[in-house]
Write a structure and sequence with these properties.
Blueprint: E1 2-7, H1 18-27, E2 30-36, H2 40-52, E3 56-60, E4 84-93, H3 101-117, E5 122-127, H4 130-137, E6 146-148, H5 155-163, E7 166-170, H6 182-188, E8 194-196, H7 218-229, H8 233-248
Parallel strand pairs: 1-2, 2-3, 3-4, 4-5, 5-6, 6-7, 7-8
Helix pairs in contact: 7-8
This protein binds nickel (II) ion.
């Protein structure tokens, strides 16, 4: 069994064939999926999908790219839903937009506090913003926890994130031609700290690069990690699945507590 810990089936890319996509993934072993909200509408849609499929879960949150015309008020009432397993996608993005950094920080801080209040993991997006996000998280060491999803900084930052109690999310880019920054991370970081994710419909791995990504392609990410770490695909699947169950408390694994 493998868990896709981060994907957006709640977008219009999957409107036409959602059921087929979920079944295709299930049949090749991608048995649990965590659909990630980015604003109110996609968070509600994530919950709707999770209600329909027993093995699908949802997170609710406000992505840094959506803070301009939104606030975080919609999040708290949704956090007690039985299929909601995390807060996010939240974080900071200084690649697409820098001038609203204060609003981004405010929304991120509010979501950190909610994650602590409800004891839920944070699903964190950072782009050109690791230091700024790290700084906001440090005061909550041992209280807040979660994953730096689609990790895109360098090895030293990955070590800092782990030291603070976070997992590192690895996606399709590890399969690309020269994953310069990611390669040393996957090589050196113990698998106990790694989660695998597709971020569908974005970031399709080789050999599907440029196409719509979907959860069944997660196998390519797992295979690549196995190759880099000289482990079997079974070992990579087993450990990353265990990590996903521990962080998101998905239930159904014997060794879960
Ligand atoms: Ni995402």
């Amino acid at each position: 069994m493998i868990v896709d810990t981060h994907l957006h089936l709640n977008t219009e890319d999957f409107e036409k064939d959602l059921d087929a996509v979920i079944k295709r993934a299930y049949h090749i072993g991608i048995k649990k999926l965590i659909v990630i909200g980015m604003d109110e509408q996609t968070s509600l849609q994530a919950i709707k999908i999770a209600e329909k499929y027993e093995h699908v879960y949802a997170t609710v949150g406000l992505h840094p790219g959506y803070v301009d015309d939104n606030d975080t008020k919609f999040i708290e009432p949704l956090l007690s839903h039985p299929k909601v397993v995390g807060v996010g996608e939240t974080g900071l993005d200084l690649y697409w937009q820098k001038d609203n950094i204060e609003k981004q920080k405010k929304c991120f801080s509010e979501q950190i506090k909610l994650s602590i209040k409800y004891k839920l993991p944070l699903v964190i997006h950072t782009r050109n913003s690791f230091d700024e996000a790290y700084e906001l998280l440090v005061p909550y060491k041992d209280k807040a926890f979660g994953v730096f999803h689609c990790f895109s900084s360098h090895l030293d930052d990955a070590k800092k994130a782990i030291e603070l109690g976070y997992y590192i999310g690895i996606d399709g880019p590890i399969t690309f031609n020269k994953p310069k920054e990611l390669l040393p991370i996957v090589k050196e970081i113990n698998l106990e700290h790694i989660l695998i994710e597709t971020d569908s419909p974005y970031l399709a791995p080789t050999p599907y690069r440029g196409k719509r990504n979907e959860p069944s392609y997660l196998i390519e990410v797992a295979k690549k990690i196995a190759e880099i770490k000289a482990l079997s695909l079974e070992e990579v699947s087993f450990i990353t699945t265990k990590n996903a169950h521990q962080l998101f408390r998905l239930g159904g694994l014997k060794d879960e507590n």
